[in-house]
Amino acid sequence: MQLRYSFRLYPNAVQQAALARAFGCARVVFNDAVRAREDARAAGEPFPKIGELSTRLITQAKTTPKRSWLGEVSAVVLQQSLRDAETAYRNFFASLGGTRKGPRLGAPRFKSRKDYRQSIRFTANARWKITDAGRLDLPKIGAVKVKWSRALPVTPSSVTVIKDAAGRFFASFVIDTDPATDAERLPQTGNAIGIDLGLTHFAVLSDGTRVDSPRFLRRAEKKLKKAQKELSRKQKGSKNRAKARLKVARDHARVADARREFHHQLSTRLISENQGIAVEDLSVAGLARTRLAKSVHDAGWSQFINMLTYKAERYGRTLIKISRFEPTSQICSTCGHRDGPKPLSVREWTCSACGTLHDRDTNAAINVKTAAGLAASACGAPVRPGAIPAQREETGSHGFPTGNRAAQRHGNPSGKARILAPQGEEHVNCGCRAAS
Question: Which of 32, 84, 86, 280 is the catalytic position?
Fold first, then answer.
């Protein structure tokens, strides 16, 4: 499987200027590709092939006065920007045709120079390398200082340089892991666990263990409120407003990093100690529309479950998601009697059939484990890992209405969505930077 390993970069002033040029050139090529696609749609012509776009928007454009500065950056960066546009259109048409899972995607839109997150990608043919001194040598940028938090297991196939909203630079390497090596890292165990996710406690396990909720956003709210108030008082377009915006972004980045680190540590511990793990398939999007929205987002259940998913696949564990409609809080884990729904204020209850006193969360975690069929695994029975789909990287897409009219507006006069097979699924953007 493919994973991303991300490391912090510390470019100097000259290298930051070179990266800014590369970000701008990649953005211009992407926008030119989208514009060429829209012009072809308006003229009723077929979408130009990527080879034709490469010749027109890169090779020939470098010879013109308006685009001569494209020659100041690596050609691989520009080619990858074209591929990003191609991938975005494939995802869009696959979403229209219903062959792509997940929410509906819209057509690629133009990238703005005011976007605070920028990225460029170098593949192997760009001849980038890691020097003997541990620096990342990028073409037409130079040897950039890297903070290596761990060693790369194998030679990366590509590297993506990212600048986030907080002004930090990262190098994200795509790694092809070896299944045999991963299997040796974590020996099989006979343990299985059920997890009940919550807000008062982040997770309650079927063995009675309780994991407190750190509530990173709640703890930083006072500081974030002050920084946001200072930002709102600055004049738009001024340098002081840019400084205040950067301060707000950095405060939010600290909260997100702390939450991600907590999720990585907990998910790694659960994967290493248990062969089988059962969780509920929660509707986080639905819960985020209730009065508990801020607390739900602060907990970050989706990110945590995604980490459990790819780590279970990587290390040969079994992760089972039970239906969200399973009445785990209503069934007695001792006798199986269904005692009916209970308000959230009821944290303990006594079974009317057998008289057992239950803690609500612990009982639910036991029922999650039982519903997943992992009860026998604790006795040493083998647990087989199921098929778990890898994550997919989406590029330049956004929400968009569906239907024949949408297909006609974006280059398909027949009104039928053209279904293009998406590129190979990868485990990218899975947040492996802080993985243990």
Answer: 280
